[in-house]
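Postdoc handover notes: sequence design on the structure in folder B. Input tokens:
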């Protein structure tokens, strides 16, 4: 297995090419001594339900996993909490205003972006929204639809962490109010 930082050849602090593997999760600069740790990126997933016991599902408009099902969410921005991130992502992708968030669980994931493996920590939140009928697929979402929890099939979802999350939600009924 390649070191997770194998594509990084130069120290991000001083620019030296004496930037070598220190241990499995870091590289150290032989010139300035800086150690860069490879930590997962923070990402959020919104689990939105309606009064009928259905979950809001998005169809991905872009790679990775274009055309497969997903749940609204995405990467957290700098200086943003996970709760702020999931609220922002849901509004960007669905047009919905979030009233409340409740942390459910997290699942590590590998997200392929521009041909590079990005390790993420996907944090799942149950979210309530103001008017679930006012949906607008936007940003990187091709379409939105409501699917009954018992009809969700993990194999229809393209990202590994979302597949695992769907199984966990169905098994544990985690999203009960």
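Designed sequence:
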């Amino acid at each position: 297995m390649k070191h997770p930082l194998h594509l990084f050849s130069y120290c991000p602090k001083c620019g030296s090419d004496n930037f070598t593997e220190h241990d499995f999760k870091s590289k150290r600069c032989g010139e300035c001594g800086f150690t860069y740790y490879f930590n997962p990126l923070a990402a959020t997933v919104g689990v939105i339900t309606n009064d009928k016991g259905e979950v809001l599902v998005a169809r991905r408009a872009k790679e990775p996993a274009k055309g497969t099902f997903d749940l609204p969410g995405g990467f957290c921005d700098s200086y943003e909490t996970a709760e702020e991130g999931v609220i922002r992502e849901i509004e960007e992708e669905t047009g919905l205003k979030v009233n409340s968030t409740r942390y459910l669980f997290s699942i590590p994931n590998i997200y392929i972006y521009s041909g590079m493996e990005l390790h993420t920590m996907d944090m799942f939140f149950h979210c309530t929204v103001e008017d679930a009928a006012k949906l607008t697929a936007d940003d990187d979402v091709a379409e939105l639809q409501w699917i009954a929890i018992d009809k969700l099939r993990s194999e229809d979802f393209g990202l590994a962490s979302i597949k695992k999350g769907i199984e966990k939600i169905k098994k544990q009924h985690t999203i009960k109010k």
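Context for whoever picks this up: The chain is about 15% helix and 40% strand. Don't rerun without checking with the PI first.
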